[in-house]
Design a protein that fits this description.
- By secondary structure, this protein is of the alpha/beta class.
- It has 5 helices and 7 strands, in the order ααβββαβαβββα.
- It has helices at 2-22, 24-38, 86-101, 116-121, 172-185; strands spanning 57-59, 65-67, 76-80, 107-112, 132-134, 149-153, 159-164.
- The strands form 2 sheets. It has a 5-stranded mixed β-sheet, with helices on one face.
- The longest helix has 21 residues, at 2-22.
- The radius of gyration is 19 Å and the shape is elongated.
- The N and C termini lie far apart (72 Å).
Length: 187
Protein backbone atom coordinates (compact mmCIF):
# COMPACT_ATOMS: atom_id res chain seq x y z
CA UNK A 1 0.00 0.00 0.00
CA UNK A 2 2.77 2.39 0.96
CA UNK A 3 4.66 1.52 -2.22
CA UNK A 4 1.57 2.29 -4.32
CA UNK A 5 1.13 5.72 -2.73
CA UNK A 6 4.82 6.49 -3.18
CA UNK A 7 4.68 5.51 -6.86
CA UNK A 8 1.50 7.57 -7.38
CA UNK A 9 3.08 10.65 -5.78
CA UNK A 10 6.31 10.32 -7.76
CA UNK A 11 4.33 9.98 -11.01
CA UNK A 12 2.21 13.02 -10.14
CA UNK A 13 5.37 15.00 -9.37
CA UNK A 14 6.92 13.94 -12.68
CA UNK A 15 3.80 15.04 -14.60
CA UNK A 16 3.82 18.38 -12.75
CA UNK A 17 7.50 18.97 -13.59
CA UNK A 18 6.91 18.13 -17.26
CA UNK A 19 3.95 20.52 -17.41
CA UNK A 20 5.95 23.31 -15.79
CA UNK A 21 8.82 22.77 -18.20
CA UNK A 22 6.75 22.64 -21.39
CA UNK A 23 3.93 25.12 -20.83
CA UNK A 24 5.50 28.61 -20.93
CA UNK A 25 2.80 30.36 -18.91
CA UNK A 26 3.05 27.72 -16.16
CA UNK A 27 6.85 27.90 -16.20
CA UNK A 28 6.79 31.69 -15.74
CA UNK A 29 4.14 31.48 -13.00
CA UNK A 30 6.16 28.79 -11.18
CA UNK A 31 9.42 30.77 -11.43
CA UNK A 32 7.69 33.95 -10.25
CA UNK A 33 6.13 32.22 -7.24
CA UNK A 34 9.42 30.49 -6.42
CA UNK A 35 11.32 33.80 -6.61
CA UNK A 36 8.83 35.52 -4.27
CA UNK A 37 9.60 32.91 -1.64
CA UNK A 38 13.34 33.52 -1.71
CA UNK A 39 13.71 37.21 -2.56
CA UNK A 40 16.05 38.98 -0.18
CA UNK A 41 15.85 42.58 0.99
CA UNK A 42 17.34 45.21 -1.29
CA UNK A 43 18.21 48.67 -0.08
CA UNK A 44 18.18 52.08 -1.63
CA UNK A 45 21.48 53.82 -0.93
CA UNK A 46 21.63 57.59 -1.30
CA UNK A 47 24.67 57.99 -3.55
CA UNK A 48 24.25 61.73 -3.97
CA UNK A 49 22.08 63.16 -6.70
CA UNK A 50 22.56 62.59 -10.43
CA UNK A 51 20.71 65.07 -12.61
CA UNK A 52 18.30 63.94 -15.32
CA UNK A 53 17.26 66.55 -17.85
CA UNK A 54 15.57 64.27 -20.31
CA UNK A 55 11.91 64.05 -21.20
CA UNK A 56 10.12 61.15 -22.82
CA UNK A 57 6.49 60.15 -23.32
CA UNK A 58 4.74 57.42 -21.33
CA UNK A 59 1.23 56.09 -21.76
CA UNK A 60 -1.14 54.55 -19.25
CA UNK A 61 -3.54 51.72 -20.10
CA UNK A 62 -6.10 54.25 -21.40
CA UNK A 63 -3.52 55.73 -23.83
CA UNK A 64 -3.29 58.93 -21.78
CA UNK A 65 0.03 60.66 -22.43
CA UNK A 66 2.27 61.48 -19.48
CA UNK A 67 5.64 63.18 -19.98
CA UNK A 68 8.49 62.25 -17.68
CA UNK A 69 9.17 65.88 -16.69
CA UNK A 70 5.55 66.24 -15.52
CA UNK A 71 6.46 64.00 -12.56
CA UNK A 72 8.43 66.83 -10.93
CA UNK A 73 7.25 67.85 -7.50
CA UNK A 74 7.08 64.47 -5.73
CA UNK A 75 9.60 61.69 -5.16
CA UNK A 76 9.25 58.92 -7.73
CA UNK A 77 10.09 55.25 -8.00
CA UNK A 78 10.80 54.44 -11.64
CA UNK A 79 11.25 50.78 -12.47
CA UNK A 80 12.16 49.39 -15.88
CA UNK A 81 10.76 45.89 -16.36
CA UNK A 82 9.56 43.30 -18.90
CA UNK A 83 6.74 40.74 -18.85
CA UNK A 84 9.11 37.82 -19.50
CA UNK A 85 11.25 38.72 -16.47
CA UNK A 86 10.36 36.54 -13.46
CA UNK A 87 11.98 38.86 -10.85
CA UNK A 88 10.00 41.77 -12.37
CA UNK A 89 6.74 39.90 -12.02
CA UNK A 90 7.65 38.77 -8.49
CA UNK A 91 8.27 42.41 -7.55
CA UNK A 92 4.84 43.63 -8.78
CA UNK A 93 2.94 42.94 -5.51
CA UNK A 94 5.72 44.67 -3.54
CA UNK A 95 5.48 47.74 -5.80
CA UNK A 96 1.68 47.68 -5.36
CA UNK A 97 2.11 47.74 -1.56
CA UNK A 98 4.47 50.71 -1.79
CA UNK A 99 2.03 52.51 -4.10
CA UNK A 100 -0.83 51.98 -1.67
CA UNK A 101 1.25 52.86 1.42
CA UNK A 102 2.50 56.18 -0.02
CA UNK A 103 -0.63 57.10 -1.97
CA UNK A 104 -0.46 60.80 -2.84
CA UNK A 105 3.08 61.34 -1.51
CA UNK A 106 5.14 59.12 -3.83
CA UNK A 107 4.74 58.47 -7.54
CA UNK A 108 5.38 54.95 -8.80
CA UNK A 109 5.98 54.23 -12.47
CA UNK A 110 6.57 50.66 -13.65
CA UNK A 111 7.84 51.29 -17.20
CA UNK A 112 8.08 48.85 -20.09
CA UNK A 113 8.48 49.07 -23.84
CA UNK A 114 5.93 46.28 -24.29
CA UNK A 115 2.44 47.28 -25.37
CA UNK A 116 -0.57 46.81 -23.11
CA UNK A 117 -1.78 44.00 -25.37
CA UNK A 118 1.46 42.12 -24.61
CA UNK A 119 1.16 42.92 -20.88
CA UNK A 120 -2.41 41.66 -20.68
CA UNK A 121 -1.54 38.68 -22.88
CA UNK A 122 1.10 37.76 -20.29
CA UNK A 123 -1.64 37.57 -17.66
CA UNK A 124 -0.87 40.84 -15.88
CA UNK A 125 -3.89 42.94 -14.94
CA UNK A 126 -3.34 46.65 -15.51
CA UNK A 127 -6.41 47.28 -13.34
CA UNK A 128 -4.67 45.52 -10.46
CA UNK A 129 -1.43 47.40 -11.18
CA UNK A 130 -2.47 50.87 -12.42
CA UNK A 131 1.10 52.21 -12.07
CA UNK A 132 2.21 50.30 -15.20
CA UNK A 133 3.21 52.58 -18.07
CA UNK A 134 4.30 51.94 -21.64
CA UNK A 135 6.94 53.90 -23.53
CA UNK A 136 8.65 53.01 -26.80
CA UNK A 137 11.65 55.08 -25.63
CA UNK A 138 14.30 54.45 -23.04
CA UNK A 139 16.69 57.22 -22.11
CA UNK A 140 20.41 56.60 -21.93
CA UNK A 141 20.40 58.73 -18.75
CA UNK A 142 19.01 55.66 -17.04
CA UNK A 143 21.69 53.02 -17.44
CA UNK A 144 19.50 49.93 -17.62
CA UNK A 145 21.48 46.78 -18.28
CA UNK A 146 19.28 44.24 -16.49
CA UNK A 147 15.65 43.85 -15.46
CA UNK A 148 14.20 44.94 -13.18
CA UNK A 149 16.17 48.14 -12.68
CA UNK A 150 14.61 50.49 -10.17
CA UNK A 151 15.45 54.14 -9.63
CA UNK A 152 14.50 56.29 -6.66
CA UNK A 153 14.17 59.91 -7.80
CA UNK A 154 13.80 63.05 -5.71
CA UNK A 155 11.18 65.77 -6.32
CA UNK A 156 13.37 67.30 -9.07
CA UNK A 157 13.75 63.90 -10.80
CA UNK A 158 17.40 63.57 -9.81
CA UNK A 159 18.52 59.97 -9.38
CA UNK A 160 19.04 59.29 -5.68
CA UNK A 161 19.51 55.52 -5.87
CA UNK A 162 19.54 52.64 -8.33
CA UNK A 163 18.79 48.98 -7.68
CA UNK A 164 19.38 46.30 -10.30
CA UNK A 165 17.52 43.04 -9.77
CA UNK A 166 14.41 42.20 -7.80
CA UNK A 167 14.01 42.02 -4.07
CA UNK A 168 11.93 42.95 -1.07
CA UNK A 169 11.69 46.72 -1.01
CA UNK A 170 9.63 47.28 2.14
CA UNK A 171 12.33 47.38 4.78
CA UNK A 172 13.15 50.02 7.41
CA UNK A 173 16.10 51.50 5.52
CA UNK A 174 14.09 52.04 2.32
CA UNK A 175 11.09 53.42 4.20
CA UNK A 176 13.36 55.91 6.02
CA UNK A 177 14.92 57.13 2.76
CA UNK A 178 11.53 57.43 1.01
CA UNK A 179 10.11 59.29 4.03
CA UNK A 180 13.05 61.72 4.01
CA UNK A 181 12.49 62.44 0.29
CA UNK A 182 8.78 63.03 0.92
CA UNK A 183 9.62 65.37 3.80
CA UNK A 184 12.12 67.22 1.58
CA UNK A 185 9.47 67.59 -1.16
CA UNK A 186 6.94 69.02 1.31
CA UNK A 187 9.28 71.71 2.69
Amino acid sequence: MRKKISKYLSNALLVFIILVLFIPSWRLKFRTTWMKLFMSDVEFVDNGRTSTSIDFPMFDSNDVLLNFQSLKGKPTILSFWRTWCAPCRAELPEIAKITEHYKGDLQVIYLTNETFEVIQGAGISVKEYPFIRYSPYQSADFEVDAFPTLFLLDKDLNIVSKITGGGNLLNDSNIDLINSLILEANT
